[in-house]
Write a structure and sequence with these properties.
The complex is a heterohexamer, with 2 copies of chain A (450 residues), 2 copies of chain C (97 residues) and 2 copies of chain E (381 residues). Chain A is built from 17 helices and 6 strands. By secondary structure, chain A is of the alpha/beta class. A 6-stranded parallel β-sheet of chain A has the order 3-2-1-4-5-6. In chain A, β4, α16 and β5 form a beta-alpha-beta unit. The longest helix of chain A has 28 residues. Chain C has 97 residues and is an all-alpha fold. Chain C contains 4 helices and no strands. Chain E has 13 helices and 17 strands. Chain E has an 8-stranded mixed β-sheet, with helices on both faces. In chain E, α6 runs parallel beside α7. Chain E is globular, with a radius of gyration of 22 Å. Classes of the chains: A alpha/beta (450), C mainly alpha (97), E alpha/beta (381). Chains in contact: A-B, A-C, A-D, A-E, A-F, B-C, B-D, B-E, B-F, C-D, E-F. Chains A and F meet through α12 and α14 of A and α6, α7 and α8 of F. The complex binds NADP nicotinamide-adenine-dinucleotide phosphate (2 copies) and nicotinamide-adenine-dinucleotide (2 copies). One NADP nicotinamide-adenine-dinucleotide phosphate sits at the interface of chains B and E.
Amino acid sequence: MINVVYVIAAALFIFGLKMLGSPDSAKRGNLLSSVGMLIAVLATLFDQQILSYTWIVVCVIIGSGIGAYAARTVQMTGMPEMVALFNGSGGIASLLVGWAALYHADISAFVAFTVLLSIVIGGVTFTGSLIAWGKLSEKMPSKAIVFNSQRLVNGALIAAILILGIMFCNNPSVSSPVLILIILLSLAFGIMAVIPIGGADMPVVISLLNSYSGLAACAAGFAIDNNILIVAGALVGSAGIILTNIMCKAMNRSLGHVLFSGFSAVKQSTKVIEGEVKPISVDDAYLILEAAGNVMFVPGYGMAVAQAQHAVRELGELLEKNGCEVSYAIHPVAGRMPGHMNVLLAEANVSYDQLIEMDDANPRMDMVDVAIVIGANDVVNPAANEDDTSPIYGMPVIEVPRARTVFVLKRSMAAGFSGVDNPLFFGENTRMIFGDAKATITGLVAEFKG
Amino acid sequence: MINVVYVIAAALFIFGLKMLGSPDSAKRGNLLSSVGMLIAVLATLFDQQILSYTWIVVCVIIGSGIGAYAARTVQMTGMPEMVALFNGSGGIASLLVGWAALYHADISAFVAFTVLLSIVIGGVTFTGSLIAWGKLSEKMPSKAIVFNSQRLVNGALIAAILILGIMFCNNPSVSSPVLILIILLSLAFGIMAVIPIGGADMPVVISLLNSYSGLAACAAGFAIDNNILIVAGALVGSAGIILTNIMCKAMNRSLGHVLFSGFSAVKQSTKVIEGEVKPISVDDAYLILEAAGNVMFVPGYGMAVAQAQHAVRELGELLEKNGCEVSYAIHPVAGRMPGHMNVLLAEANVSYDQLIEMDDANPRMDMVDVAIVIGANDVVNPAANEDDTSPIYGMPVIEVPRARTVFVLKRSMAAGFSGVDNPLFFGENTRMIFGDAKATITGLVAEFKG
Amino acid sequence: MDAIYLLFILMLSIFLGFEIISKVPATLHTPLMSGANAISGITLVGAVTSAGAELGGTATFLGALAVIFATVNVVGGYMVTDRMLGMFRKKPAGAAK
Amino acid sequence: MDAIYLLFILMLSIFLGFEIISKVPATLHTPLMSGANAISGITLVGAVTSAGAELGGTATFLGALAVIFATVNVVGGYMVTDRMLGMFRKKPAGAAK
Amino acid sequence: MLIGVPKEKYAGELRCPLIPQSIKRMCAAGAKVTVEKGLGSHSGYADAEYSDAGATVSDDHDAIIANSDMLLRLRKPELDDVKNFKKGCIHVSYLDPFNERELVDALAKQGVSAISMEMIPRTTRAQKMDALSSQANLAGYVMVILAAHKLNKILPMMMTPAGTISPARVFVIGAGVAGLQAIATAKRLGARVEAFDTRAVVAEQVQSLGAKFVEIDLGETGQTKDGYAMALTEEQVALQKEGQKKVIAQSDIVITTAQLFGRKAPVIVTKDMIEAMQPGSVVVDMAVGSGGNVEGSKPGKTVKVKGVSIIGVDNLPAEVCRNASEMYSSNLFNLVDEFWDKEGDDGFVLNREDDIIQGCLITHDGAVVNEQIKNHYENQG
Amino acid sequence: MLIGVPKEKYAGELRCPLIPQSIKRMCAAGAKVTVEKGLGSHSGYADAEYSDAGATVSDDHDAIIANSDMLLRLRKPELDDVKNFKKGCIHVSYLDPFNERELVDALAKQGVSAISMEMIPRTTRAQKMDALSSQANLAGYVMVILAAHKLNKILPMMMTPAGTISPARVFVIGAGVAGLQAIATAKRLGARVEAFDTRAVVAEQVQSLGAKFVEIDLGETGQTKDGYAMALTEEQVALQKEGQKKVIAQSDIVITTAQLFGRKAPVIVTKDMIEAMQPGSVVVDMAVGSGGNVEGSKPGKTVKVKGVSIIGVDNLPAEVCRNASEMYSSNLFNLVDEFWDKEGDDGFVLNREDDIIQGCLITHDGAVVNEQIKNHYENQG
Ligand SMILES: NC(=O)c1ccc[n+]([C@@H]2O[C@H](COP(=O)([O-])OP(=O)(O)OC[C@H]3O[C@@H](n4cnc5c(N)ncnc54)[C@H](OP(=O)(O)O)[C@@H]3O)[C@@H](O)[C@H]2O)c1
Ligand SMILES: NC(=O)c1ccc[n+]([C@@H]2O[C@H](COP(=O)([O-])OP(=O)(O)OC[C@H]3O[C@@H](n4cnc5c(N)ncnc54)[C@H](OP(=O)(O)O)[C@@H]3O)[C@@H](O)[C@H]2O)c1
Ligand SMILES: NC(=O)c1ccc[n+]([C@@H]2O[C@H](COP(=O)([O-])OP(=O)(O)OC[C@H]3O[C@@H](n4cnc5c(N)ncnc54)[C@H](O)[C@@H]3O)[C@@H](O)[C@H]2O)c1
Ligand SMILES: NC(=O)c1ccc[n+]([C@@H]2O[C@H](COP(=O)([O-])OP(=O)(O)OC[C@H]3O[C@@H](n4cnc5c(N)ncnc54)[C@H](O)[C@@H]3O)[C@@H](O)[C@H]2O)c1
């Protein structure tokens, strides 16, 4: 009987998660999954051979109290760290459940293994989440904390956990000190893993830890073989990974980097060497645009060659629908004849009011989230300002590097009309999207619509 | 051990199916799932407590021989009916497996139930597929065979199967004649269900039966509790339903209609009454366009009002990419000023060569798969030719009704400039897509790209 | 208890089935159908088990028959699908022009 | 044998997890995360079982603790998510202008 | 049936009523066509082309008008030609019947069945014969080209190394066939286009060309069943003037197409408005022929007022005579073809039942038969 | 620093070298500007606007040229004015130094530092001072408007109740700044546009405007580092003629912009080609001033050859003098501003190191200093 309820609960979770993925169904989705949770818990309470309710009821009340209070009082800005805390408590819970599972009569190596999993993952999630919370709520320095022996320490920790783990599986017992050790180590590792990550990355970290806590629950499920735990845990685990990935891309960081920041952090902090070209895929570019609030197009001769003007206009419209501010910065010499861009954009029905001259564009640049350079080159070449040996030195240019992110759409690294190389392409915040501009833009449009 | 193999096999099936869904991965997908099948079968052969190989090997060889031969020799045109045959053999196989399962020692009511399921579904699939094959390969009249008492007969069949089924579950035994009866009835039902469906619908029917055979396998899985059968069966079952649905839409029929044609057939055949407006959703429209080989746009004043010209051009380009022939038929009085459409389409860069005058458009009409009427009304009003009381009688119009399918994009049923109602909207092969033309077209574009 | 697990598996599989098939180009309808159909030939496993597990003449006979049919479905299904996809390979090149 | 079923369930669930999350608008990232997080509070069920199944003091104690934490996660998680979505409700209207 | 096509005498008329292609089709239908020498010379059609098309080319004007059963032409006939017309012959041309009473009476007296191209009803079915539309359409295009040519600025926006040139502002008053085409052409050239019309229905049509419709609330205005505008009341005119003044002041080009069929065109742009415009700006008055929408516009002249040029070309379509002739020619052909006896060989049959004929047939059997015209004359007394 | 701006004497020159806005900015930079009375009258700038902008308006031409440290103007100075120039003054204007040796020598003799606007290098940096480009650009637009006005057809395609008007065909020869703008404008009006240029690189630029580039294989052709075209060899010219003949024959409008800076323009469209065109077609010769690309074109005239009109307006930008003045004015301003002493108050500093100055400075300290020109003169001997 109870299991049938579990099946239903699982189904509800699945629906819930799916619905959470799209704006208009999200609220219902959340409700659905909460219902799933409710019936699952109730079923457990009534059906399982629960011997003492007292404790449970008390605890549930306490827990709900805390949870409800926290959820109520936190102000909007504090939400992410709050999620981190909740997530942490989820992690510790799994740890405890796993631990408790050891008190069952017989413990096969398999069970012991799953118990360990739930303990380790749970522990990491717990401390990790706490650190994340600390960093977000500025309870501790939010900047990446890095020291040289970091990679060593982390390595050591993992090794230790592995060895102890194997030892434990061979003769699992509640009393063995090994267990305590493992618990402590996992907690420590959780801390080590997160401190070297900067506050900016915290949302990603939390989402990742969230996926961990799912896995922890899943492991716990194996430990006490309870299939709803497994299903729900696994769902959250995998869904969490995907979500983390999406978030990474939206902030354009690589998941790998976040995952192993603990190890590579030191290297990373010095990795920002000039002279490195960072290409990016259309899908990833979409995720960034989707999150942008102010986009500036900077068209050049390449847009004309690609005849991309219509696609560009459409992308502009979609961005505006998405609540984003859109402008077109026209450099006086963009293209191959005076007013080249005007001809094209007028043809594509871009309203005159959205066109801004270079002199108006540059002051706004700092508010721009993404500057999309479409087949322009010379007119956005910083060398014109910086390098007085350059033949175009002294020509005023559109200063895209000052935008938060710069997309450069062109087919190759080739130079423009004046044949001057362009340092912009190597900029810290520059992402190259190689390929025909029209194809690229159309791709982005598709992402927005599809 | 074997079960681990099953898990892997299942995973392979999942990947396989997913990959089959997109052109460039399809071939690999098919390979993958076949590998899954192979390992599953081998594992079964070696692991299970198989006592006599001889039979099995012989049978496998025979089976493979037949299958391989058939698959090799059939010519491309014959593929669908071949699939039907294969599907049929799958169905009968499930039936037999279920039947054989009864010979196991103990049969709970649950098992009996699942056995029945596999038998009934398997049986229906078998005969159903055979009929489908017959119709497709013109071995029998491919037109819908309908007689009045059909619904009665079908109803009776189902009732009988239900009653007998219950009887059987109460005391399940291999020997009981009830079993034989049920088998015969299901076979009969399979025939009855398919004969009333016209040859044109056969692909849909096959896809549906295919999904059935999946379910049959799934049921058989329960009967001999074998989880790979359940997983694979369920996968095919559900995937099949979706696919069927997609196919229905591409041929614009309703799934419900196909599912219950057996019952509604008689009614249906007379249902095609004049004067019924058939609206259609953008998604469904997409599926039709996606399968079209020759599309003709017929723009009118509405396109101008909606300023949809750019979106239209883009849709045109996408259709061409999709290997479809695209033309724009311009009626001399379309719009509100002479050359109104020219101004807009020129602005949207539609090449002059794609524009055809009414007099050239009409002769081509019979080759057109889909004529997309974009906010045009009077200029496509058949009344101008037919009804000599109409004020526009005598004005030559673009004769879209002669195209295979006609989409009419407008916001309401309102009349056009001349205020004359338009019988086109009620045409047999007309589908109305209500809403602003630009929104609609942009939607279609999205479908193509997303 | 088993039944429950099976139920879970069934539920999840059905969900998956719905999820993995989304938008399919018309050209792929038939191949996909026949590919799926081949998978449904999984009954072969069942057939083998029944045929193998000496349950007496009839059962074995039924099993054996089942094996034949199932194999036809599996082998034929996969091969035909492969052929379809094979010829389809070229088409897009043509279509894309 | 159980382990196998569980394995199946695990496998299928993971696939499902991957399938159901596809493209998520930025505005939904946090809510989705916190919603998923609430689901991961499912350990509550486990906690309840351990806490309930009189396995002696420590175990029960651990279980009880677990229950508290898990409940915080569940209740807090769902409520916070709901709040986020609640305020987000209005935004699109503004955004769409 | 003998069809005659006399040459246009009117000075500066470069168009010709029929081009060889149409004549070919008429001959194919069984008509005998005689055209006067040099008929299409101005539009670049040589006499040879006409004879190749199957027409007889004659230089005897009088013979043509005297012998033809049907006369096809562009402008109204000369009064003293009329008495030479063959009795009962069918004469198709512009007639301006509301103002040409004398001519119409003469035609009636002569027993000529005179068809006025202006009077072809504005129905969807009749559009292919609607010369007013086909010519107004070209006029719309021409007006913009004339204005652009005259203006000392360019129309499109240009952001260049030597600064930004902002787009010229064009204001089109009256968005009928001509007005709409003017809007479209100006848009094409990249100008900022605004438009106004008394008929509110046109707002949508204006926007459908990507231009802005200037909202001026005139209260109740109407249009006749043929889509023509009704005259405005005093205060409505005042309101409109007020509303337009601002727009006109900041426009580089103002184009007026406001005609009231048969009646004198309303004066819309007054002197003070013009003086409020930038020197160098341009005003084009399409209605100059029928009284003018612009104060001080002169037919066939370009007058300068405080540096503003007022262009008053009275025969706009002639500027693109080649296409104009094509259009008018096929209007004529479509008319003839519509009523041509396809079975027998009675040629052109005057089907008095048909609403098109009822609309455009002015005189018949020695009397003025057209209702509208008859009423109009009676009101004149 | 005293800056003088004399009025243009040249007949039919409607442009003015400086508009009030620019003068305002110069004054702000610390210059004292004197403009001759009526400087901007043709382009619609009243003297009042100039004085408001901070300039002194004087009607004493001689005083202005005699006292100014810097003279800014459009066209080359009159020869007999030169002797009155203040010694060492800087004179900026068009000079056409390759052909105006006498004038240049006079300027040198007078010790004037003469800057020739034509000689501003075609570098990205210098574009904002590049008057050739800014004026050529407008010329490109004007040519199309002139042609459209002259043509007896409309440019766009129109499918109307009275039949379909097919789009006019426009062929642009020479796709430089002017050529490209001409292409863009013709496209805007809906014409079918084809173009040709000897520099293969331009093909892409032509397509980037949606027009068709006519492929004619001339073998090896080149362009100078400044983007100017090199002269063609005999057989190349022949090849080109052959290739173009067909296209020209079927074009309604042919526009030639093929100039070879400093040298006589090549004759590209010959009599026989013109005769192959339809009567009524139009040819516009932008190079008419420097010898003409079209056989029989006359500066300032429109000649008819077999019904084909050859338009030879030699001062195209003046047709849109308002914008043309704006453009030229800001070219001048940008030049002055680029070398204006921002810190001290030395005003305009002739930085002989700067590549722009090196390119455009012709005479200095009593000698011809520009390499190109010197060589040119020496070759003339
Ligand atoms: N405005 C004028 O009047 C005028 C006249 C003559 C010269 N110029 C000169 O032209 C230059 C204009 O600067 P600009 O930035 O507009 O152009 P640009 O500097 O020439 O750069 C154009 C860029 O577009 C890219 N591109 C070409 N085709 C493309 C396609 N199909 N898709 C995507 N990218 C494409 C090219 O890179 P890939 O090859 O890697 O794709 C190229 O780097 C200035 O140097 C200016 O001085 C201007
Ligand atoms: N060409 C000329 O010179 C000229 C001049 C004057 C009059 N006319 C007349 O105009 C008519 C032209 O025929 P037509 O078929 O082009 O136009 P139409 O008959 O007037 O029909 C236009 C249709 O477009 C639909 N529509 C309007 N806005 C729309 C939007 N935003 N999205 C989607 N649909 C929209 C309207 O239906 P909903 O309202 O339901 O959307 C309307 O039925 C003829 O009767 C002709 O005689 C032509
Ligand atoms: N049914 C058809 O197929 C058909 C054919 C041709 C024209 N039409 C319609 O007939 C209508 C009139 O065509 P037209 O161009 O010959 O009209 P018109 O030449 O008689 O008048 C031109 C325009 O000026 C406007 N106007 C009149 N007085 C005005 C004033 N005081 N201020 C501002 N505007 C004023 C009129 O409303 C009209 O739109 C058009 O709307 C056209 O669409 C219909
Ligand atoms: N670097 C810059 O920023 C900059 C600035 C302005 C112009 N330019 C470039 O300089 C080039 C020349 O500009 P321009 O318009 O002053 O050139 P131009 O006026 O000297 O010549 C016009 C065009 O005619 C072409 N031509 C010459 N002889 C020809 C022949 N026999 N047949 C056909 N075509 C012939 C030339 O190739 C040139 O394209 C342009 O390509 C322009 O892009 C560059």
